[in-house]
Amino acid sequence: MTATATSTPPPAAPKVSGGKGGRARLSFPVILLIIAGALVALSAVRAITDAQDLTSAGQISAALSMAVPIGLAGLGGLWAERAGVVNIGLEGMMILGTFFGAWAGWQTNPWIGVLAGVLGGMVGGLLHAVATVTFGVDHIISGIAINILALGFTTYFAKLWFNTGEAAAKGGSPKQSPPADDIASVTIPGLSDWLISIEKHHWFFVSDLAGILGGLVTNVSLLTIVAVGLFFATFLVLWKTAFGLRLRSCGENPIASESLGVNVYKYKYIAVIVSGGMAGLGGAFLSLVTSHIYNEGQTGGRGYIGLAAMIFGNWRPGGLAMGAGLFGFSDALQLRAGGQSVHALLLLLAVVLLGLGLWKAYRKSYLTAVISVVIAFGVFVWYLGTDTVPTEFVSATPYVVTLLVLSISAQRLRMPKADGMRYRKGQGK
Q1: What is the pLDDT of residues 236-274, one digit of tens each?
Q2: Which of 68, 138, 273, 373 is the most exposed place for a label (fewest CB within 10 A)?
Q3: Are 194 and 262 in contact (CB under 8 A)?
Q4: Which helix (DSSP H) or strand (DSSP E) does residue 32 occupy?
């Protein structure tokens, strides 16, 4: 009589998001193919509708400027949520960054203002970490409280600091700070002029590509270059170092991480404080690069849009960058009186929704397919029946795009397993 093993095999180690065992990701050639396809679609829309500003260097330059604070806020959310802490307070941390960045920037120089904005955001992150990690407060409640506190704090101190004395004499008021000096911008000489000259020919695809590249090499703020570097640094730190592996493990299975000797509290604190610093840097960018002053309410919900960009990017820096670029592009339309451009995009939206409907029909999701086709038909009728779109709709474009993108991409998302869960030290014993 043969004996069979009855012992239960040991459980497999928890997988950390982003490993080979997780959800399959798009390869780099496929990503390039998708980007090329999107550019061809934009070129076709631009040629059909004659909306020349759609891919102009000015539009792309404005989109880049709008994408940076959104991307930095999303990067802050990525750091926190990879460690298992939901950070709804990004908006409040951005507000602190705008206020302290402008406050220090007009008195000293803009780079000290950038540092002050980062530190202001980090203070907000520290408060969020104390509430959620140490005291176990619900993450959503803590984030909303920080947003309210940041708004109240900056409103009060703006009246106290910007409305008297030297600040008032230099243009300050209860709702804005005096202007700060500019942060230097760089342009690649020769290449920028050459690309802009090609753009002016309005050739299909070639001029569109030249306009996009021209916008990326003309009058680029040094702080924008720093922000791009932070995306690469985040990827290297979180996915290529032992520190990053430990931090991400806290967002996947903190109990298992603790059993392996990881100080979960420490890593969560680090992640949330860095998260606040990233959001504060995004706020400082708004007050020191985009407008050169602090304005009450100037974040305009970009902290929430950054969170949406992070979700769209599936909690990874590359996807987050694409999401921030998309939202920044839609945000820039309203700055350039983009009624004609938004109207042209209605045609593109109709085509995308029709394609989505056909794909859902192929996958036998007939209800979703019918809804997509009906909406596509409605958008196409809207496009044919109008020459432009109302200014109110142009202003709402970033938020409409946010809802559409999250609705379409929701099915492929994979958040960290322990994201938002309350963790107490020693609970696995």
Answers
A1: 999 999 999 999 999 999 999 999 999 999 999 999 999
A2: 138
A3: no
A4: helix 28-49
